[in-house]
């Protein structure tokens, strides 16, 4: 395998991994605070369609990105209202949100299916992008990928180093104790959910404005679900999340690689790989109760009300 | 303290709080001076928890005044209470297990915590000054219960503390650990901090506290100086009746082993749990064996192995035997058929299904008592059984159709114990049989256990209440770190022996050596 091919694979791996990374970062923060939001897929699609429509009509890509994030946040606000304020079951609410988001995005975007758009272009950084192997992967991407690097650094810093991260973790582990300490449990959880919504919306915008600049129904193709699995795969640790996102990115471009190498494996089989890998990883990891006990937010998915 | 001119640190006037269906606090007056260790005594359900939640700002009183150092205040939340200098150590710790000691403390301190580099020396300083060894870098889940309590206390001491509230702090400690805690508390009080010490253990209240307020049924039943009162007088204030408080049951010895445990070891896959090592035990028909131990030393794991919730592989079936028959590999229902009855520690969700009626809960474990025929439930019989339990054990409930969760803890405990006892088991394994139960009900339960013993059943009681164990057990032992001490007849055992066992000192014989068995 020559260096150019490898360099291309790495480049595509990061591109493919970026939407997963963005959604998973949002969900990680959300789950750290104790909230399981299964609505990622729906929020992502809604963000994708709104981002596309806005960018298409206004001609401003960044306005599209901004409104895509707002759209994701709006849906997550709905989730927060139902699951946190009214204390409905988080799993059911999240599932409903996904179903709702998928339908809503198809409905809203019907008139824009297949319309062409000039999306975000790669922006190579001089010299740095010429580094062999990793130059293109890290320094010849589009602006949204660079943004994902920055957001990763931000989330990693917040969770590992900052007091805010400590508070999020405390709320997710023992909301009763956190509340007894005077921490605003519901406010922390709501903000975490909103952050997750914005990230899902951003991931959607990346799909419809950069990755494949167009709108098609269901274009996220289950990435929201893979991102949810990623958070478990990473056992709620942020560095593993980065690794996992790119590994899954790699898995989802393997059929292209195989074609490039002229391997006689049916590409539909390889295209299945990320989904199959998700199942295998989840099964393997959930067997290990020790890891789950040590790292999983203890109160994940449990409704909480003040004064109980 | 006796100076009438000094301003009280905290004064409560006519505090009342009503919950649906009960008046939890009824016009309660209380006053604590600076540097005073004040006991708040009372049975479970007397209103202690409610009162302390009001002082700490968790709940608001319906009426009455809270006066803090001469100023009337209106507490809205715990954060406000903490900013005034009120700290609280909860009975069920409010710590975050996956965080370090320092992180836990930083969370409570808010912005004043500073950076970890600044905080850690301060934690070390405070822990040294009050004689509570603690390593700031350790993760809380790796700490013992006693160490966790230190984290809670140090967390309070890091701030400018004026009033420290401790909710039944010794219930999780060995007697020696409790003594260490008292040293710290006396030191703190000598520096002018007021301490509100909530307890129902009369002995330690008399040894530690300057004054006491006793609650009964939501009201103040008396103020007193504990050092000048006898246990009986204090108990009378708490319970309202003098008779039948402390009963001595005749001790027996038996030699026909029903439950035999041989070399029972079990590795716990849970990293926060306790593994069991080489447990050896025999319980004979017609005796009560009591096992002491601080929670978290393997009780839950051991009980699950005994009840059948955890099963061992078939090859290890011989490690537990009922009447000679290997059972360690059998499921709970198979063990029940061999004569086992089981009262778990956790009442709701383990001993009873919260949503089901009492009658249905009776059916759950007593299904072998002719309540089912040809796969159909005989409703009438189930209800008769439930009503019999309610009657015989004085369960306070409207009827047998009431859901289990609407009963108070003590009432439900009576029901669950009654359900198991009425099945006339050959072996009863009971965890914390009177935990959270008032004195009257505890006596009922103890009498029932003794009667069951005298009818020839083997009984194993696991409890944290040493008074109870000494009262009803014929032989005693203790669990520590997943190991079981040797058993000794209760009459030859002193409290300090059990204390040593609970701390893991199994081999230090302090009493005359027991007769060889």
From TrEMBL, chain A:
Q: Which UniProt keywords apply?
A: Cell membrane, Membrane, Transmembrane, Transmembrane helix
* A GO-annotated cellular component: plasma membrane
InterPro entries assigned = ABC_transp_permease
GO terms (molecular function) for this protein are: transmembrane transporter activity
Q: Which Pfam families match?
A: BPD_transp_2
The protein's name = ABC transporter permease
Topology in membrane: Multi-pass membrane protein
Residues in the signal sequence: none
- Location in or out of the cell: Cell inner membrane
Chain ranges passing through the membrane: 12-30, 42-59, 65-86, 93-113, 133-160, 191-209, 215-234, 241-258, 264-285
């Amino acid at each position: 395998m020559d260096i150019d091919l490898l360099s291309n694979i790495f480049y595509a791996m990061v591109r493919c991994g970026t939407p997963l990374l963005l959604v998973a970062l949002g969900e990680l923060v959300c789950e750290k605070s104790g909230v399981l939001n299964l609505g990622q897929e729906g929020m992502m699609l809604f963000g994708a369609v709104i981002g596309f429509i806005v960018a298409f009509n206004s001609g401003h890509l960044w306005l599209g990105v901004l409104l895509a994030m707002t759209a994701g946040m709006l849906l997550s606000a709905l989730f927060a209202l139902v699951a946190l304020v009214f204390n409905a079951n988080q799993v059911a609410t999240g599932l409903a949100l996904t179903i709702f988001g998928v339908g809503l995005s198809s409905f809203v975007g019907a008139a824009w299916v297949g319309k062409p758009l000039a999306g975000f272009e790669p922006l190579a950084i001089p010299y740095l992008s010429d580094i062999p192997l990793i130059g293109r992967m890290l320094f010849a991407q589009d602006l949204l990928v660079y943004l994902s690097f920055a957001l990763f650094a931000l989330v990693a810093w917040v969770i590992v180093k900052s007091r805010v991260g400590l508070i999020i973790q405390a709320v997710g582990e023992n909301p009763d104790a956190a509340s007894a300490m005077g921490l605003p449990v519901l406010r922390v959880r709501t903000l975490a959910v909103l952050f997750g919504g914005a990230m899902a919306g951003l991931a959607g915008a990346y799909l419809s404005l950069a990755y494949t600049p167009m709108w098609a129904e269901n274009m996220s193709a289950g990435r929201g679900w893979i991102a949810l699995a990623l958070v478990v795969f990473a056992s709620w640790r942020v560095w593993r999340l980065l690794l996992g996102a790119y590994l899954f990115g790699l898995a989802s471009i393997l059929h292209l690689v195989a074609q490039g190498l002229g391997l006689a494996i049916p590409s539909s089989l390889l295209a299945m790989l990320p989904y199959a890998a998700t199942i295998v990883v989840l099964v393997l990891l959930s067997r290990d109760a020790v890891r789950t006990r040590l790292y999983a937010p203890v109160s994940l998915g449990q409704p909480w009300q003040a004064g109980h | 303290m006796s100076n009438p001119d000094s301003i009280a640190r905290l004064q409560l006037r006519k505090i009342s709080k009503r919950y649906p269906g009960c008046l939890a606090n009824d016009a309660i007056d209380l006053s604590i001076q600076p540097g005073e260790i004040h006991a708040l005594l009372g049975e479970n359900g007397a209103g202690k928890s409610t009162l302390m939640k009001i002082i700490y700002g968790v709940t608001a009183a319906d009426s009455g005044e809270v006066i803090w150092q001469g100023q009337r205040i209106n507490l809205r939340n715990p954060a406000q209470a903490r900013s005034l200098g009120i700290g609280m150590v909860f009975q069920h710790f409010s710590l975050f297990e996956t965080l370090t000691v320092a992180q836990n403390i930083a969370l409570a301190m808010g912005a004043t915590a500073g950076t970890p580099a600044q905080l850690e020396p301060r934690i070390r300083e405070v822990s040294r000054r009050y004689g509570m060894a603690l390593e700031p870098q350790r993760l809380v889940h790796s700490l013992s219960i006693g160490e966790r309590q230190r984290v809670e206390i140090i967390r309070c001491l890091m701030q400018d503390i004026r009033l420290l509230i401790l909710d039944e702090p010794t219930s999780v400690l060995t007697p020696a650990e409790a003594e260490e805690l008292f040293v710290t508390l006396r030191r703190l009080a000598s520096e002018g901090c007021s301490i509100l010490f909530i307890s129902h253990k009369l002995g330690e209240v008399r040894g530690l506290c300057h004054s006491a307020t006793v609650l009964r049924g939501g009201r103040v039943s008396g103020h007193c100086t504990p050092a000048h009162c006898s246990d009986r007088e204090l108990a009378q204030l708490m319970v309202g009746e003098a008779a039948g408080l402390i009963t001595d049951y005749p001790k027996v010895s038996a030699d026909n082993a029903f439950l035999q445990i041989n070399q029972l070891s079990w590795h716990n896959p849970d990293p926060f749990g306790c593994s069991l090592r080489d447990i050896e035990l025999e319980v004979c028909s017609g005796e009560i064996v009591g096992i002491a131990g601080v929670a978290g030393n393997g009780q839950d794991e051991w009980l699950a192995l005994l009840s059948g919730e955890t099963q061992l592989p078939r090859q290890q079936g011989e490690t537990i035997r009922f009447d000679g028959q290997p059972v360690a590999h059998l499921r709970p229902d198979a063990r029940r058929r061999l004569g086992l009855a089981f009262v778990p520690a956790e009442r709701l969700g383990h001993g009873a299904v919260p949503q089901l009626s009492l009658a249905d809960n009776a059916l759950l474990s007593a299904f072998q008592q002719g309540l089912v025929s040809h796969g159909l439930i005989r409703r009438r019989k189930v209800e008769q059984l439930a009503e019999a339990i309610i009657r015989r054990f004085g369960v306070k409930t409207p009827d047998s159709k009431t859901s289990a969760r609407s009963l108070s803890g003590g009432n439900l405990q009576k029901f669950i114990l009654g359900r198991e006892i009425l099945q006339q088991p050959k072996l009863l394994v009971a965890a914390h049989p009177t935990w959270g139960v008032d004195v009257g009900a505890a006596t009922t339960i103890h009498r029932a256990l003794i009667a069951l013993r005298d009818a020839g059943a083997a009984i194993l009681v696991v409890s944290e209440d040493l008074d109870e164990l000494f009262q009803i057990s014929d032989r005693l032992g203790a669990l520590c770190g997943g190991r079981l001490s040797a058993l000794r007849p209760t009459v030859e055992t002193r409290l300090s022996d059990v204390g040593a066992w609970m701390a893991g000192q199994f081999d230090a014989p302090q009493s005359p050596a027991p007769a060889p068995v």
